Amino acid sequence: MKKKNIFICIGVILILVISIGLAYSKQSEKEELKLDTSHLISIMLENDIASDEYEKTEITKWPIEGYSFNEEESYCDSDSTIKWVNNKIQIVGNMSDKCYIFFDKIVKDYDYIGTPQEFIVPVTGTYKIELWGAQGSSYDEDHQGGKGAYVSGVIELNENDNLYIYVGGHPNDQSEEAGYNGGGVGSHHTQYGYAGGGATDVRLINDDWNSENGLNSRIMVAAGGGGCGFQPSENHIGVAGAAGGLVGYDGIDKSQYAAHNHHGTGANQVEGGFNSDYSYPNSQKNIGGFGYGGYDDFDVFGGSAGGGGYYGGGAANRGHAGGGGGSSFISGHTGCVAITSATDRNPKSGCDEGSKTIECATHYSNYKFENTEMIDGLGYKWTTEAGEQTGMPSPSGEIEMGHDGNGYARITYLGK
């Protein structure tokens, strides 16, 4: 009998322990649910600009960069109200309501890939386009290639318009290989000349980067910087010319001889840069052209190349001198000089290097930007000439004094 009572007591104790455990477990679960509201909110991100296709994301904070809150699409199962205030969501109503928060994609980014990239306008409206040109080849961290330029503008585009984005390439340090999209080729002999950086541009025609029709169709160009050089015997390093606004920067000759002047000059709105050494005749190779930087072709010492651009910078013909920077272009930016037509690269009738009218600056296609901004590779802001040294926005949102590395492009949808 005593044994039976003992077993009954043990059974009662076990039941009490299990009950307390279950009660505690349920209470803990409740508290956890109180603290974790992720089961109540679904963040829905649009796949592409104006696609109207959304996917649920696992991110734990509200997306701000590249997205805008869509109040019309957002809703809660029990009709709580949703507002976007100071980059935060405010939900008023039932605390346990299940809500779906929609964000529209407004930004499309283009990194360097070495081939054209297409943008099909998804909806008629206003777009901001930003371009960064590529840096020229460097000797080392302390002696860098010319930095790339930045351009931007706002433009009205129609649904199903096609634009083609060519993002400029940055040659590796001490590279002879040209930067994609117009950087000049470096030349190594007894001295070392490094390659120019490529331009980043927007075109109306998709073709090889150097095709005549494609280059003529450019409506916006951010220039690339010139390449560095190196003279081993004297340990002199040629200083590269930075990418320009309307005009590119000259390279600098660092020879100890004052009479030496072997650098490449910067391009402008109607012609490419050239080699400043008048003891050698200029050829069609060391002079920059429409869309490409020059390169040294004398096969004597080696020379630094020009950067790509609307027009490309000129090449140096010694390693102790740097290549010139390319020039930038924005259709509709006063001071730019547009070409006559799809088959004629001469400046528009009555327009020249000193022209300061919108008519002269407008591309033959009549695609035209407003609220334009042009900042060269040293950080100077251009109107019809270089002004204040403001720096430029980097793709990551910081301020840089000329663009490092490969080029970049961004298209932002501003609305209908």
Description of the structure:
- This protein has helices at residues 2-35, 212-216, 358-361; strands spanning 41-46, 54-57, 67-69, 75-76, 81-85, 88-92, 99-105, 107-110, 117-120, 125-132, 150-157, 162-166, 192-193, 200-203, 220-222, 229-231, 236-238, 329-330, 339-341, 344-347, 370-375, 380-382, 386-389, 392-393, 399-400, 408-415.
- Residues 1-36 have low confidence and may be disordered.
- The chain folds into 2 domains: 38-105, no CATH class; 107-416, no CATH class.
- 10% of the residues lie in helices and 26% in strands.
- The chain is elongated.
- With 416 residues, the protein is mainly β.
- The protein starts with a helix and ends with a strand.
- β24 (392-393) and β25 form a beta hairpin.
- The longest helix is centred in the first third of the chain and has 34 residues, at 2-35.
- The protein has a 7-stranded antiparallel β-sheet with strand order 8-26-10-11-21-22-23, with no helix packed on it. Strands 1, 2, 3, 4 and 7 form a 5-stranded mixed β-sheet that branches. Strands 9-12-14-15-18 form a 5-stranded antiparallel β-sheet.
How does the helix and strand content classify structurally?
mainly beta
**How many distinct domains?**
2
Radius of gyration: 30 Å
Describe the biggest sheet?
Answer: 7 strands, antiparallel
Helix content: 10-25%
What overall geometry do the principal axes of the alpha carbons give?
elongated
Distance between termini?
89 Å
Overall average pLDDT: 85
- Tally of individual helices: 3
Question: Strand tally, please?
Answer: 26
Strand content: 25-35%
Lateral arrangement of strands in the main beta sheet: 8-26-10-11-21-22-23
Order of helices and strands: HEEEEEEEEEEEEEEHEEEEEEHEEEEEE
User: Segments where pLDDT lies below 50 for 5+ residues?
Assistant: 1-36
